[in-house]
Design a protein that fits this description.
The complex is a heterotrimer of chains A (153), B (385) and C (381).
Chain A lengths: L25 H14 L2 E6 L5 E2 L14 E6 L2 E10 L12 E8 L6 E4 L13 E6 L10 E6 L2
Antiparallel strand pairs in A: 1-2, 1-3, 4-5, 4-7, 5-6, 7-8
Chain B lengths: L5 E8 L11 H16 L8 E5 L2 H4 L4 H4 L1 H4 L6 E3 L6 H14 L5 E9 L5 H6 L14 H16 L3 H15 L13 H6 L2 E3 L2 E2 L8 E10 H7 L4 E9 L14 H14 L4 H4 L2 E3 L7 H8 L8 H6 L23 H17 L12 E8 L3 E8 L4
Parallel strand pairs in B: 2-3, 2-4, 9-10
Antiparallel strand pairs in B: 1-7, 1-8, 4-7, 5-6, 8-11, 10-11
Chain C lengths: L3 E8 L11 H16 L8 E5 L2 H4 L6 H4 L8 E5 L3 H13 L5 E9 L5 H6 L14 H16 L3 H14 L14 H6 L2 E3 L2 E2 L8 E10 H4 L7 E10 L13 H13 L5 H4 L2 E3 L5 H10 L8 H6 L25 H15 L12 E8 L5 E8 L3
Parallel strand pairs in C: 2-3, 2-4, 9-10
Antiparallel strand pairs in C: 1-7, 1-8, 4-7, 5-6, 8-11, 10-11
Helix pairs in contact in C: 4-14, 7-12
Classes of the chains: A mainly beta (153), B alpha/beta (385), C alpha/beta (381).
């Protein structure tokens, strides 16, 4: 910029933000996670006004803003709507590459769930492929109680 | 001011609590949006734009305008996020005003929210300050406030007891407010014997931290009076986000309040605020501010703030009630707090403040505070400007 | 909408790591350039809107860092958190409301000071999604695949965007990554997340941009060459990726339709002379062009191959080199606006599009282009 600071060593100060978080899941999400953990079932909500079935479930319909939603069990099976095979080890990733992420439209749901696709060669994954949920052996009431979605007929 | 006059036509707020385990952040937002829509007798379809804010690091969510769409009703609508720290709520109110006054949007939904229980409040606030110069010696919001109190006390001889009188007032007022988090009155002795946090500030001198949300609907003059028979007109807004470094601050006087209020009152033609303003919702995060900042606002001369408060002038029934809602000391979901001040001022003007109503309100002032001793202000009026 | 104009623009160079500059230093540089460009001093600025993001800056109340350097100390000021196009929108409303005659808008970030993957991972919902470990790149890879599947757009088409934009950057002294590439170079670059290769992705950069908007009356008082704001709109899609059809950008279509309608533009593909749009990834340039109606659906890749969007094409897109050549998040959209301003004034130097009179600038906020802001600018009032 100007010559005043020529020859001055640019110093770098290293730090980080360490703020721990505990997010309240709320009653709706809690019901969903209890379903994964205790029943190995996937629950969605259907808007009583427009009939949209959403997974993950919502307390209220985000589009018609209607309060009343019914719980509906959706199938653990569905279709891959889109996917990606991550090859570079990006900082946010929890496992070693390759990792396959996908959006899966479960039978009975009108929205897709974001999750992993596993037990398959990356090259074999296709849009339109049918997959089913594989539950983790140890489940804690969180999204990774589903380990991944795997190919099925 | 402004070519298109704008009024608040509805408000909503949640019952603020120390924590809300029953709802996620998106659900809390939806709850308050529904309350405001119900108050204004509108549906989400009537809303033309949404303005939303919180302080990111309290909930650890990036791009909150985008994330909130499920709860804010902003699906296929324009939504924009404003955030300026503690002043966020009042910054949002000012933002909504300009969006409506621009004529581009007829009805604007403004949402302020916070789930402070989800994180370490002080840890997050500390990151507001410059990493190289200030952060290492800064211990959260309270250290700046303690410095201000000490400086004022040294100049003008005020005491902890004077400040405690402010806490007693606000905690007493909060008993009339069903939305406030803390609804138990305190005595002078309670305040003075409560644990010392940062000399001279005791526990009962400062705000709690809360989970809560507030929503305000503003409308342009073409429709405001069709929506409600008694809209709250926004007469003027003014703010100063003065100071970036703690070392620059003029400790003991709130410069940003002094400058903003001069501008605010001048814009509205108010010459004697103490006489012409009927009620103030002051963003007062700690009790000493209730003595110092009313001087900066030009209500009373420098050094006379304590005397004015002791006279009862700022109590309900007094000449100029301050914080009929109980203010920030009774309730503080930070991203919402400034907007709650605005909503409470609106309720006063609209005559909807129920058990905390000040009679015959013509003009009300709401303020926001935060950042590095920053101030936002809005002037609300029953008449159309 | 009342007549308003952009009367000054200024930006720093876009670099991988501005080690000698703090946020305030960058703002100081950009603001002074904008003031000089407009031929005014900070005194003629009525109010200030800064644009920043607390996560990217690692700082709660991130606006505080640039407040003094943006001349905000004695003025009414506010801050938008989102892309610079949104900050500029708010700055515009503060003039349209009648409150102020001039607004200074800044937007900045220093990608070098953070780990972008963690920052964009934080955009995912903490309850249902964050733990899966996606970030902006993997999310956009999902969208790229969905878009390619629906439209038949090929990896070669995507690569063509990278070749064009990095090539355009050779003529832009402020761009970070000018490169002479061929399609094979892109396809052979490291696969990050299928189908996105390294050269399909923008970098994460450091920069700051500042623009000054004025009312008609004030624009007339100052020497800066005004570029007129004819239309502007923004719109957000649903939040959860699974709620959306990722192969389409419905919220962009709506924002663009509104903005063009305000501007009296009935055939944007024909009437726009230049476009600076948000190419955070190669596929996005193609997808956004179609969604905005600047070309027919599913055709952008083919038209690109034919040269339609090159510097000598029917509609030059990102003549500056776009984000692929340098991507300071948050500042990105404001820079798009500044670049269109330069084009419409005839000040774009080696990458000037001859005879450019009307242009469109575009910015994005959120994952996979959830929220879009579109500006239509004109040389004439």
């Amino acid at each position: 910029m100007n010559t005043l600071f020529d020859g001055v060593e640019p110093m770098v100060y290293e730090s980080g933000i360490s703020v721990p978080y505990n997010w309240w899941a709320g009653d709706t999400a809690s019901r969903f996670f209890a379903g994964l953990r205790d029943e190995r079932k996937i629950w969605g909500t259907r808007c009583a006004s427009c009939g949209t079935v959403r997974v993950p479930p919502r307390k209220a319909c985000p589009i018609c803003f209607h309060s009343h939603s019914d719980w509906v069990e959706v199938s653990g099976q569905g279709v891959v709507m889109t996917f990606t095979v991550a090859r570079r080890q990006l900082a946010a990733m929890k496992q070693s590459v390759p990792v396959i992420f996908g959006l899966i439209r479960l039978d009975g749901a009108d929205t897709s769930i974001l999750h992993y696709i596993g037990d398959v060669f990356p090259e074999a994954v296709r849009i339109g492929m049918r997959v089913k949920a594989k539950f983790s052996e140890t489940r804690k009431g969180e999204i990774r109680d589903i380990a991944y979605f795997m190919p099925c007929e | 001011m402004g070519k298109k006059r704008v009024a608040i036509v509805g408000t909503g707020q949640t019952h603020h609590k120390s924590h809300r385990p029953d709802v996620s952040g998106q659900e809390l937002i939806r709850e308050v949006v529904l309350l405001a829509l119900t108050d204004a007798d509108l549906t989400i379809r009537d809303i033309d734009a949404v303005v939303i804010g919180n302080m990111d690091h309290f909930e650890g969510i990036n791009y909150v305008d985008c994330w909130s769409v499920d709860g804010s009703g902003a699906f296929m609508k324009p939504i924009i996020k404003l955030t300026t720290g503690g002043t966020t709520g009042s910054t949002l109110a000012i933002g909504g005003y300009h969006l409506a006054a621009s004529g581009l949007f007829e009805k604007v939904l403004i949402i302020g929210w916070e789930k402070n229980s989800e994180s370490d409040t002080t840890g997050a606030i500390t990151t507001a300050f410059d990493a190289v110069w200030d952060r290492l010696v800064f211990a959260g919001a309270i250290s700046g406030l303690a410095a201000e109190a000490q400086a004022y006390m040294a100049k003008f001889g005020a005491t902890e007891r004077d400040a405690a009188r402010v806490s007693v007032r606000d905690r007493g007022h909060a008993c009339n407010n069903p939305y406030a988090q803390l609804r138990k009155a305190v005595t002078l002795e309670d305040v003075l014997t409560s644990p010392m946090l940062a000399d001279p500030i005791h526990l009962l001198d400062v705000c709690p931290r809360s989970d809560g949300a507030c929503a305000v609907i503003m409308a342009g003059e073409d429709v405001a009076e069709k929506i409600t028979a008694n809209p709250d007109w926004i007469w003027a807004t003014a703010n100063r986000h003065k100071y970036t470094y703690l070392g620059d601050v003029n400790w003991g006087e709130l410069d940003s309040m002094a400058e903003a209020s001069k501008e605010l009152f001048a814009k509205a033609g108010i010459r004697e605020p103490r006489k012409e303003i009927d009620v103030i919702e002051l963003y007062q995060p700690y009790s000493f501010a209730g003595i110092i900042w009313i001087e900066d606002m030009g209500l009373i001369e420098r050094g006379k703030g304590a005397e004015y408060v002791w006279s009862g002038a700022t109590d309900m029934g007094g000449e100029l009630p301050i914080n009929p809602s109980g203010g920030v000391i009774a309730c503080n979901p930070i991203g919402a707090t400034g907007l709650i001040r605005c909503a409470e001022a609106a309720l006063q003007v609209m005559g909807k403040a129920e058990g905390r109503q000040v009679p015959d309100v013509n003009f009300a002032v709401s303020t926001g505070f935060g950042g590095c001793m920053w101030t936002d202000m809005l002037l609300h009026g029953r008449q159309k400007p | 909408m009342d007549h308003t104009a952009i009367i000054g623009v200024g930006m720093t160079r876009i670099e991988a790591n501005k080690q000698s500059d703090t946020f305030a230093d960058m703002a100081w540089e950009a603001v002074n350039l904008a003031l000089t460009d407009a031929g005014i001093t900070i005194k003629e600025i009525d109010n200030v809107v800064t644009t920043s993001n607390d996560f990217w800056d690692g700082r709660t109340i991130s606006c505080m860092a640039v407040s003094d350097a943006s001349g905000a100390r004695g003025k009414n000021a506010s801050c938008v958190e989102g892309d610079g196009t949104f900050g500029a929108f708010y700055g515009l409303t503060r003039i349209l409301s009648g409150a102020y005659g001039t607004t200074l808008i800044t937007a900045h970030s220093k990608g070098s000071e953070s780990v972008s993957s963690l920052i964009t991972n934080a955009a995912f919902d903490p309850i249902y999604e964050r733990a899966l470990g996606l970030d902006m790149i993997t999310a956009c890879a999902l969208q790229a695949r969905a878009y390619m599947h629906r439209t038949g757009t090929t990896p070669e088409h995507l690569a063509g965007v990278s070749v064009k934009n990095h090539g355009n950057a050779l003529k832009n002294p402020l761009a970070q990554i000018p490169l002479s590439l061929c399609v094979a170079d892109v396809l052979q670059s490291e696969m990050i997340a299928d189908p996105l290769h390294k050269l399909d992705c923008s970098p994460v950069s450091d920069a700051c941009c500042a623009i000054i908007i004025a009312s008609d009356e004030r624009a007339g008082r100052y020497p800066g060459k005004p570029v007129w704001i004819k239309g502007v709109s923004f719109c957000a899609d649903a939040y959860y990726l699974g709620d959306r059809d990722l192969s389409r950008a419905g919220s962009l279509t709506q924002a663009a339709q509104n903005a063009f309608k305000m501007a009296g533009v009935t055939n944007p593909a024909r009437e726009m002379d230049v476009a600076e749009i948000y190419d955070a990834f190669t596929y996005q340039e193609l997808m956004w062009l179609e969604a905005m109606g600047l070309c027919d659906d599913s055709r952008a890749g083919i038209l690109l191959e034919r040269g339609e969007f090159g510097l000598n094409g029917r509609l030059p897109v990102n003549p500056s080199g776009g984000l692929l050549s340098g991507h300071p998040v948050i500042a990105a959209g404001l820079i798009r606006m500044a670049e269109v301003v330069k084009q419409l004034r005839g000040e774009a130097g080696a990458y000037q599009i001859g005879g450019a009179r009307r242009g469109v600038a575009h910015g994005v906020n959120g994952l996979c282009g959830q929220s879009h802001c579109v500006w239509v600018l004109d040389k004439e009032k």
